[in-house]
Amino acid sequence: MKVLVSLVSLIAFLMVVLPGPLYKFGVVELGTAFAGFRFGVYVGVAALVLLLVQVIFMRKTATVSSTIVAVVFAGIAIFMPLNMMDKAKSVPPIHDISTDVVNPPKFVAIAPLRADAPNPVAYAGAETAAQQLKAYPELTTLNYAYPKSELVVATVQAIKNLGWELVNSDASQGIVEATETTTWFGFKDDIVVRIKDEGSQRFVDIRSKSRIGRSDLGKNAERIHTFVDELNAVLAK
Questions:
Q1: Is residue 174 a contact partner of residue 156, using CB atoms and an 8 Å limit?
Q2: Cα–Cα distance measured from residue 183 to residue 20, given in angstroms and rounded to the nearest whole number
Q3: Exposure of 183 by Cβ count < 10 A (0-12 exposed, 13-18 middle, 19+ buried)?
Q4: pLDDT for 106-118, tens place per residue?
Q5: DSSP label at 217?
Q6: β-strand 165-170 against 175-181: which pairing, if any?
Q7: Which single residue of 99, 156, 158, 163 could bond 230 by disulfide (Cβ 3.0 to 4.6 Å)?
Q8: What gap in Å lies between CA 218 and CA 215, rounded to an integer?
Q9: Tens digits of per-residue pLDDT, 71-123?
Q10: What is the pLDDT of residues 10-26, one digit of tens each?
C-alpha cells in the first residue's frame, strides 16, 4: 500500500508539473497539456484517499516521511490547477491590455512575428476595452517631463533589466517593442511602448498582448505594472 500511495501521488505531481515543459519543447499540444492539469487533480485526490485508507486501516505500513511526501505531491497536484482556475475566475477573459484603449499602441516590428499566432495583432476591440477598464482602472497613460530621447533610452534599459527580448527601438517614432517568453510553458507575449510629444510633456502608453490563449490570467496587466515600476526606477537613477 505504501508503494501504491507513493506512486499515485508522484504520478499526480508529474501530471501538473511536466505539461508546461513538454508543451514548451513541442512534445505535446496545448490541449494535451491542459488535460494533464485536469486529470492531475483527480489523481491527486485519489492519492489522498488512498493515503487516508492506509493511515486508517494499514497504519503500520505508513511512515512519517512517506506520508509527508505523498501529501506534498498530491497537494501540489490539486492546488496548482485549482489556483489557476480561481485566478481565471477573478480576472476578465481577455489577453490584450493597453494603457490607451481608444488608440492603443500598434505593433510594428513584432507584427510579422505574430503572423501565425492564434491571437491576431489587431487590438481586440471595444468589448475587451470595457472589460479592461472595469478590471484594471489604474492602467492609464503615463505623463513625464523627461525628453523623448531619454524616455526611449530608459524604456530600452527597463526592458533589458526585466530580461525581455528587445525586438525594436525607434527613437524617431518613439516606439519600443519587446517579447517576454514565460518560464514554464514558454508562451510568448508581446509588448509595445509608445512615447508621444505633447508640448512640454511626454505621454507614454504600454500595450501587452498574448500570442495564444483567450484569457491571460491577468498576466498582461501584471506585466505592465512591472514595466512601469522598472521604468520609474531607471528614470530615478
A1: no
A2: 9
A3: exposed
A4: 999 999 999 999 9
A5: T
A6: antiparallel
A7: 158
A8: 8
A9: 999 999 999 999 999 999 999 999 999 999 999 999 999 999 999 999 999 99
A10: 999 999 999 999 999 99
